[in-house]
Structures are given as C-alpha cells and as structure tokens.
C-alpha cells in the first residue's frame, strides 16, 4: 500500500511499484528466519535496502509518507515503524549500556539544505524531526557520499553534527545491525525525535568538502518534552 500510494502520487505506473516490491521481497527471503521469528529485523532490513524505484529507496518513500501524514497509508506505516522502533527505542536500560556509542559521542549526517530553510535552525531552537533520521559514526561517509549527492541534486550541502549525552546516550536511537548495506555504520533516530540547535556555520559557497555545518544536541529522552509545543523541522 505504501509503494502503491507513492506511485499514485508521483504518477508512476503501479507495475513499476509491483516490480520494486517484488525486489524487496526477494531481498527479504535471503533471511527467511527473520520473516518467521524476527519481524523487527525484517522491517529494519527494509529500511536499509539499496533497491530503488526511480531513484528512491524504500527508506525515502517511507519517510515521505510519514512527513506528509498520508492517512490512507498510516495503518501500514505503523506496522513497519513498530518493527523498526522496537530495535531503536530502549526504555529498560537508563544508561543504554548495551549500545556501543561512538567514543567521541558524535554522530554525523550529510545532506542538502535549501537556502530558504536555514532560518529555521536558529541557535537554541528546540524542535522535532518528523521522520526517521539516519546518521553515521563516520564523518567521511556523511561528506563523501551524502553531501556529494546533495551537490549532484543542486542542493547546498550541509553536515549535521549530532552531539550525544556523554553519560546517558539516547533512549530512542540505536546502531543498525540488520542491514543490507554494510559499511555505513548507521545509527537511526525514530520519527519525531527532539533536537536542540547548538551552533551553525553558514558558508557563502558551500562545497561537499566544506559544507554548511549545523551542530545539534540530541535529547536523551523524547518523553521529557512537551511535543505539542515543539515545532516540526521543515527539512532533515
């Protein structure tokens, strides 16, 4: 349903969507045991799939569906998100001892940021991100892959630098170890995670090697915030 809705909204023949779905199925059956007993792992592998539908991976399609609150798909989205979130959210261990956090307590995310969205990210602003937010422990990957991709898409490149709490980490992110794309060393934040803008560096002419930089403080626990009074980021 999620893929069919994406096809309808973007004027893509449903046949292409069906073929894309079949490809995802074939990937899933490479780990058949997960389909039977580890549904959460199967959902996470869907997120990490490198297969594309007209240049869009399933993770991108899922995020678009979440951001736009497509009511017709929410029941299906909830099933997948429940599976993914069960591997990301840890409410039982306050200090998340079982998570291997980066030693410097920093994560990175590369991408693009339109000029007209810069003003939202004022220092001190607390906000929620209305989608899954994929990050990496590797600055080189964030710049060399994702900032470069932004330049190719004619977007000003930006490097998000996410600062984790040194003592407690974060209750709503985790390392993605059920992946179909090894090597990215990804930490995934659940939708509507809370961040605070610590510092920004805007460049007159950013490049993928010298992009805009936005430093964010990661909330330890989303439940400590009044979500109804926090703005949603217009860009992630």
Give the helix/strand class. Answer: alpha+beta
The helix-strand sequence is HHHHEEHHEEEHEEEEE
Principal-axes geometry comes out as globular
Largest sheet: 5 strands, mixed
Strand composition percent: 15-25%
Q: Taking strands numbered 1, 2, ... along the chain, how are they ordered across the largest sheet?
A: 3-6-10-9-4
The fourth-level CATH homologous superfamily of the largest domain is: Toxin ADP-ribosyltransferase, Chain A, domain 1
Instruction: Give the fraction of residues assigned to helices.
Output: 25-40%
Unreliable runs:
none
- Terminal CA distance: 25 Å
What is the CATH class of the largest domain?
Alpha Beta
Q: What is the β-strand count?
A: 10
CATH fold call of the largest domain: Toxin ADP-ribosyltransferase, Chain A, domain 1
Topology:
Layout: H1 2-9, H2 14-28, H3 32-37, H4 39-48, E1 52-53, E2 56-57, H5 58-67, H6 74-88, E3 106-112, E4 126-129, E5 133-136, H7 139-152, E6 157-163, E7 173-175, E8 186-189, E9 193-201, E10 212-218
